[in-house]
User: Fold this.
Amino acid sequence: MTLNVTFDTDDRSVVALQRTVLASLPTSFALNAAGQADVVAISGTDHDWVRRGRRAVEGGARGVFIACPGSADPVVLRQLGADARAAGVAVLVAAPYRADPAWADCLATARRDLPSLQLVDSVIRVSPGGGPQATRVALLRGVLEQLGVVEDLAERRVELELAHSSEGQYVVVGTTGPMAVTLTGVISPLRNETFSLDAVGQQCRWSARFAGDAPARPSEVTRWDRSGSLTAARRYEGSHRRCWRLLHAAIEAGAPAGFTLEDLAGRLAAVPAPLADDAVS
Assistant:
């Protein structure tokens, strides 16, 4: 079934990106169609994004798509998630790198290498957004994306602390089990988002170069060991597109929505306070 989508955000950059993605899903979603909106898309770059989400849930939407998740009180997020479930509304918090098809294909194999991995290093360059608030949310989204991918790999929580923070960058360090973790985020003046992750051990190494905000550029995931390297098959589906397909399946078939408001609440608790606090200032 084709679902009607409307945007409830003041961030034009979010609307432009997501409209481009939705154009590749014409049988699943329609923009500006007549009648009640089935899906409302909001953005954490708006200071009142939680209120907008509640308005969508209480306004009869069947689904809510949250792009660029921002910071909020975890108690409020969990309550909104519970109210959405009670109303039969599917809510998806966009976590495109976590949902990346190429990375998902390799995740089970990478987890088998966990006993030998000793270091995870990740760098994300994010677009600055449309103002100071959007820039702060972009940095928060960066660390949330990195944390999501690393925790999915490790299948456990990551204990983090802030090593450095300035107006346009951060460095966060921590551990998960025996692995050391370093997460770096910077604002890209060229508005070109990139995300890399390297997991290194004595027996092997993994390298993931995610496609950023490009709608259909394939990510590249490679494993090295003593016998050589193996690069996963390229998947020409953007991770943002994958998030929308997950939401469609959640609405139409009751499938898991992926990253939820409850997941976001838990992950915000793991983010060092200055980064999360700055995103709501």
